[in-house]
Design goal:
149 residues, alpha/beta, Rossmann fold, 7-stranded mixed sheet, 4 helices, 28% strand, globular
Length: 149
């Protein structure tokens, strides 16, 4: 099953991220898909804000992984520049550290992703409107979507 949300502005995207954060659990994995400027990093910022992370959240394009401390640890990844180096990142370790993993450009490492996760797709329409589609894999992620949509 897939869930669809229309975001008419940045605030709508942030509210969705905050609502998903309210249903967080240890080892949660959220994979973000969409073109440049589609709202992936904004979504992570909203999620991080709800986790009470004080640091300024930015895209980890050149760092690949940024770690933030909050109510729960947040591991923000941008795998766009990884290429075949993805094995060196130790992704499996992050998936079991007890925090939350959010991966931008997850489509580039699909073979490395856990079977249970939440995929979030961003599509930009006219007037900066976005369609955000949530696709849960696993009962816990289905429950998250049911709770926030």
């Amino acid at each position: 099953m897939s869930y669809r949300v229309v975001s008419r502005n940045e605030e709508d995207t942030i509210v969705l991220a905050e609502n998903i954060e309210s249903e967080k659990f240890p080892n949660m994995v959220i994979c973000l898909y969409g073109d440049l400027g589609s709202g992936k990093t904004l979504f992570v910022k909203g999620f991080a804000n709800a986790l009470e992370i004080d640091e300024n959240v930015t895209s980890p394009t050149f760092n690949i992984i940024k770690e933030y401390k909050g109510q729960m640890d947040l591991y923000h990844m941008d795998v766009y520049r990884c290429g075949s180096q993805v094995e060196c990142l130790g992704l499996e370790e992050y998936f079991t550290k007890g925090g939350i993993v959010m991966i931008e450009w997850a489509d580039l490492i699909e073979d490395e992703l856990p079977k249970e996760r939440l995929d979030v797709f961003f599509e930009v329409l006219e007037n900066d409107t976005r369609v955000i589609r949530l696709k849960p894999y696993g009962d816990k992620y289905e429950d998250v979507c049911e709770a926030v949509i």
